[in-house]
Amino acid sequence: MGTGAEGETVELRVHGVSGGTAEKILDHPIVDLVAGDRHAGFYRPRPGVGAAGGATPGIAVEAYRWGALTAGAAVRTASMLLLLPFMLSNLAIRLRPAAAGRSHLFRVLCRLLAGTLTAAFVLSVVGVTLDLVGWQCVPFDGCRANRPYLSWLVDLPTGPRLALLSLVPLVALRVVWGIGARSARALEGFRPPEPHPEDTRAPDRLDVPGFWDDERTPAWLRQIHVAIGAGTVDASLLAGISAPDGVAGRVLFAAAAGLIGCGAVLLCLPVPATPRQVRRVLRPLSAATVGLSALSLGYAALARGVHSPPGQLPGYEGAVGALLGAQGVLLMVLALVTVTPRPAGSRTVLAGLGMPVVAAASVTVGGAFAATLVFRVADFLDRGYLPGPIWPDPPGIAPLDPPVAYWWAALAGLAALIIATGAASLTLLGGRRRRRRRAARIVERDYPDRTPGTASRRGVVREAIAHSHVTDELGPILVTFFVMSTLGLATIAFDLIGIGPTQLVARLSRDPAKTTLLTAYVTDGGVWLISLLVLGLMILAFRSYRSAETRRTVAALWDLGDFWPRTVHPFAPPCYAARAVPELAKRVSALGSHGKVVISGHSHGSVLAAATILQLPPDIRRRVALLTHGTPLSRLYTRLYPAYLGGRTLRELGDRLDWRWRNLWRDTDPVGGPVFPRSGDGAAGDVPGAGSVDVRLRDPVSLAIDPADTVPPPLERHWPYHTQSPYQTAVRYLADRIG
Question: In which order are the strands placed within the sheet that holds 661-666?
Answer without folding.
Answer: 31-36, 41-45, 60-65, 9-14, 596-602, 624-629, 661-666, 694-697
